[in-house]
Amino acid sequence: MRRKDTSSKEYPVFREGDRVIGTDAFDGNEDVVGNIGTVCLVEGDNMYSVEFDKRINGGHNCGCGIADGYGWHIHANSLAPYQEELDVAPPMAYDEVMI
């Protein structure tokens, strides 16, 4: 299977430890789409090793200590930054504060 042409575009840059979400299948693997994970290795050429939170079909350990079955080498064009939503109540207005 051929990879997408990645030579002339700008892509997001991630660092080790960044949380990401798969936005597009890479190397034919649809399991990454919507799956959240953590960048564990910056490989260069916009490639990353990501440990996903859920098992990936055909996943591996990326050669860097990821739990086997959860890792995938993936290009930045198939990832987006992920920010976890906090389950926090909105702050109370001044007149709602109970004294």
Question: Could you give the topology of this structure?
Answer:
Layout: E1 19-22, E2 36-44, E3 47-52, E4 71-75, E5 79-81
Antiparallel strand pairs: 1-2, 1-5, 2-3, 3-4
Q: How would you characterize this protein structure?
A:
The structure is a single chain. The mean pLDDT is 85. 0% of the residues lie in helices and 27% in strands. The chain is mainly β. It has a domain at 19-84: SH3 type barrels, CATH 2.30.30. It is globular and about 50 Å long. It has a five-stranded antiparallel beta sheet, with no helix packed on it. Strand 2 (36-44) and strand 3 (47-52) form a beta hairpin.
Number of helices: 0
Please name the CATH topology of the domain at 19-84.
SH3 type barrels
Strands side by side in the biggest sheet: 4-3-2-1-5
Low-confidence stretches: none
Cα Rg? 17 Å
Cα shape: globular
Structural class: mainly beta
Q: Overall mean pLDDT score?
A: 85
Q: What share of residues is helical?
A: under 10%
Distance between the termini: 66 Å
Total beta-strand segments: 5
Share of β-strand residues:
25-35%
Q: Spell out the helices and strands N to C.
A: EEEEE
What composes the largest sheet? Answer: 5 strands, antiparallel
- CATH class type of the domain at 19-84: Mainly Beta
CATH architectural name of the domain at 19-84: Roll
